[in-house]
Amino acid sequence: RRAQASRSSKHIKDYPALVKFKLWVARLHSQFAPLPEGTTAICLRLLFPEDDITRKYDIQEPRMTTLLAKSFGLDMSKFEGWQHEETSGCLGDELALVLDKSCIVDKDFETRLSIAEVAELLDELAALSPYSHNSIHRKHPKAHRRSRANVMQSLFRRLSLFDAAVVTQIILKDLRPLLYPLTELHYSAALVNFNTAAVTMLTKEHAMRAWNTQGLLPKFFRVRATFDAAGALAEKGTSSYCDAQPAIGFPIAVPKSEKGQSCPHALGLLFPVETVWAETKYDGERAQIHVKVRADGGSDITIFSKSRRESTDDRVAVHEIIRAALGLRLAKATAGSSRFNTSKPPNIKHTIILDAEMVAFCGDKVAEFYHISPLIGGVRGRRRVVTNVPNDDGDTESDDGIVESDFSLGLVFFDVLYLEGKSLLEHSYTDRRKILESMIYVRPGKAILAARYLVPSSTSSSTQAEDTLRWIFAYHLAGHEEGLVLKAAESVYNDYRLPWVKLKKDYIPGHGDCVDMVILGASWEKVRGRSLRAPPSVYTTFFIGALENKEESSSKPKFHSYFTVAYGLNREQLEDLNFKIRSTDPIPFSDLKSKDGLEFEVTFSAISKPTVVLRTPLLVELFGAGFTKAAHSQHYELRFPRITKIHRPNERSWTESMSLAELNVIAFECVGREHPEKEMYD
Description:
Elements: H1 2-10, H2 16-32, H3 39-47, H4 61-72, H5 91-102, H6 115-126, H7 134-139, H8 148-156, H9 161-171, H10 176-179, H11 187-192, H12 204-211, H13 217-223, H14 227-235, E1 258-259, H15 263-268, E2 276-281, E3 285-293, E4 299-304, H16 319-326, E5 351-362, E6 365-366, H17 372-375, E7 378-379, E8 382-383, E9 389-390, E10 396-397, E11 407-419, E12 422-423, H18 429-439, E13 447-449, E14 452-455, H19 462-478, E15 483-488, E16 501-503, E17 513-523, H20 526-532, E18 541-547, E19 558-565, H21 571-583, E20 587-588, E21 601-604, E22 612-624, E23 627-628, E24 637-638, E25 642-646, H22 660-670, H23 678-681
Parallel strand pairs: 1-16, 11-13, 19-21
Antiparallel strand pairs: 2-14, 2-15, 3-4, 3-5, 5-6, 5-11, 7-8, 9-10, 11-12, 15-16, 17-18, 17-22, 18-19, 20-22, 22-25, 23-24
Family: Belongs to the ATP-dependent DNA ligase family.
GO cellular component, one term: DNA ligase IV complex
Domain ATP-dependent DNA ligase family profile: 402-548
């Protein structure tokens, strides 16, 4: 299996998008060699805008249409059709059509900007977002920044029709609808006539390999996971992967995990290793922590999220926890606080990079995921406001009786990647864990190490290994834990031959949490639509709800829709559901208040609203990975929900669905909490 994986990683079968990209790269090098410094990063950031972690624009289609209208002196109404059913759902396409019809830009007009100039203007536009990287803000100081409208005019007025469409989608962080245009716009044809082999999209890994014929660029990206840093290593002529080291301030690529669909299957993915460890999978937010000790004894902390976005300011609440866990001097503001242990000697002299999960603690126990958000202290220097009302003791109390002061942020450390200027990425998991244990001062409720359990060798007795893993897994499920992550003792970090294997109950067919609820509305959502290659005529996202007054049989039914589901159905099932909804003559959401055709009342509390509302609720079976709560929501909802069955109305009516009260009772039991009104339900 390892040999096969190694061969497949080296020999990539060409596909149309990759062939075209290779031809373009060859032509670029032949016409403009030697390429200017920084060209690698410029091209990759333009081609894969969704992976450009330095530029953030705070611009989605509604704001983009306003800016485009101002840039070209057009009425905004001309852009309203970008997500109509008969279109591809691409604003870039719509812009090209509008400009062509209005004759503002001549068809033969050629772009007067180089890619470097386009990149510079995009940097200037991104500097207006507080979420862009600090390097972008330093490049364009606040005192000298132009308005968005002025930057957009400078950019778009010098672009051809097609290039204007491309740059529009780059700013919207999604080039897919232009690079891989849809061939079907009718909902049924788009879903049923889809050929999975017809379109293979260019991946950034394949693009990097094609750009750098030595194949080193994707390897550089694994240790410095930004296009700028990896591109700079490649352009310097770094001769081998061994010469590329991690560095403080540059994210390291996060390993991709396999999904274990049973205990034997999970172990089989790591066969025939001698030793496997099962780590507890904690329900939190990933934090890759970079620490550099200054000459004056202070320390600088940089934190990256799972998506490689720098989130140092967002995670300011855990900075002192990190320093205390490493025995470093605390900041002056907290140096005298009894909440942090400052009596230990420092465990590092210069630098360290750690992998951790930021969690909410209730005492010494890790709490549910949704408690993290209210505890995060700062977002880009701004305070988040906790909207809960103080109780008689002055503490804030949530809707289900939880006192917020019982919770605090903490960290679960599970790996060390870099220490005192030396990479640990090629060290075994066993060695890295031993080093990690020597680095961290454990303090329950603040900083702990991930719990782990030894699984005996599967080479000597596969039955014993499987039985042991089943017991460990069952123990975690009984304790309301999320699951396990299996790691081979001999594996290096981000080892494609011996990957990490996640084992969760919802990965196992027939397991997970299952509830009966109703679909009340539907819409096309662009992210899900584009992953399906489905136009706006397809309903991709469904608004789920439950009865608020099920016990009041004489009253008009009142539904509350508070979350959505977009996964679980194959293309044929999704086409059938679309047909069912359309055949019942649904009501446009915009007409809901003026229509009196519904036999029930419904409230939609999700941020987005449906395109249509069903005249009769449709009962569905939902499957998920436990329960959670959205911000400011009073009710539990399924986590990672999927539709597993659509009930025909003549077989099971919507009246058989769960009420909100019944759902909350089940959710409280599943997360291991006692319902505040348990006696009433008993």
